[in-house]
Amino acid sequence: MAIELPNSLKKTFKKEELTPREIVSELNKYIIGQDNAKKAVAIALRNRYRRRKLPSELAEEIVPKNILMIGPTGVGKTEISRRLAKLTSSPFLKIEASKFTEVGYVGRDVESMIRDLVRIAVNMVRSEKIEEVKEKARQNVEEKILDILLPPKKKSTESSSSEEQEKFYETREKLRKQLRNGELEKRVVEIEVKEKSSSPMEIFSNSGVEEIGIQIQEMMPGLLGGKTKKRRMKIEEARDYLLEEEQKKLIDMDQVSRLAVERVENSGIVFLDELDKVSGRESGQGGPEVSREGVQRDMLPIIEGTTVNTRYGLVRTDHILFVGAGAFHTTKPSDLIPELQGRFPIRVELGSLGKEEFIKILTEPENAVSKQYQALLETENIQINFTKEAYEEIAKTAEKVNDITENIGARRLHTIMEKVMEKISFEAPYLKKKKVSISKDYVRKQLQNIVEDEDLSRFIL
Length: 461
Hints:
Blueprint: H1 10-13, H2 20-28, H3 35-52, H4 56-61, E1 67-70, H5 77-88, E2 92-96, H6 112-149, H7 161-180, E3 188-194, H8 216-219, E4 228-234, H9 235-250, H10 253-267, E5 269-273, H11 292-304, E6 307-310, E7 313-316, E8 321-326, H12 338-342, E9 346-349, H13 355-363, H14 369-378, E10 383-386, H15 388-404, H16 411-427, E11 435-438, H17 440-452, H18 454-460
Parallel strand pairs: 1-8, 1-9, 2-5, 5-8, 10-11
Antiparallel strand pairs: 3-4, 6-7
Helix pairs in contact: 2-3, 3-5, 6-9, 6-10, 13-15, 14-16, 15-16, 15-17
């Protein structure tokens, strides 16, 4: 007997039937190199698909094999996880482990990551439901606007009322036609709008008090902004407001919450960045190290599998995939407490990036930074063309600056490209020449003074 997942997850898992090779191929469109990391996450994603085909008793026992990515900043750790989540429309949360504090200290507790993940899932499901009811809501809004423009008459018992009714419907259809043709957009109408007021509970949102689950505004709408008032506005403005209100009416938020929790429990992905920052053991020296091991102990039950209470209900974390990441320059994975090490059985090391990788990053990915600049300047009818030698010079400079200063990986390309394109971006509205070629000499000219002055490059690049 195969395990049956809720109907709400069929869309989520639709693309999860991609084979590991297909998953890696999709990741290759945005990330250069790091084949070992891509293979690890591809297998993790495929295993979720495999789990669905197992008997329910066995499927419940199989938990995701959490992954620990080890490598310097800017080599693609976060991007791999983010693209993986997009492949399956999975709820995805990136959070820095260093933001958490041990229970008893002022700061965020580790359970807040699950609450944040559920919020993201609720927004995802709500957006999907809005898309489903969009047409129905649009039709309802059209009828409401017509009711405002031509209020329906009370039914009459007289025999002559049939003629009046026929005339009424004829006029209404004329107005409908004008409304759909956009001829009435500037007409001013009077509609009832709800008074908006924020709940005082949100003052404590940073410490998680909002998760108590008490919505005073929902309990006492008349006290906190549930009253309505009449407001005059153009039909084009009224339509947007009425459409939003109608969508809220058509969506069952209880169902949205339930589906969101199911999605989190079965396909949620949490990316724990900067895990190396909390990997130090207790040293007794005070300072920021005091609560490092405490944070790890608090993380352990979440990653092992526990139940977290959120405003949308209880959430089990047993089948959420956790991807840890860190540079581990001054520490090593073995500095984590043994129990936490055991919860990240798959470890992949991401290598540093050099000139050849930088050239590929500049040219191959669909979201390459060079393509972004070309698209931005094309909005002002300026066509930018990079020569092959220009790409090589930019890559060579990025590698050199990473060597002599701090190695920040591919992020260095963004700072260098900004300096290369600075003059053109600034002068773009005034350029008479609409086709601009970026050559090797131009790149050198823009970067020469900065690269030669090592002290200056530390601050600018």
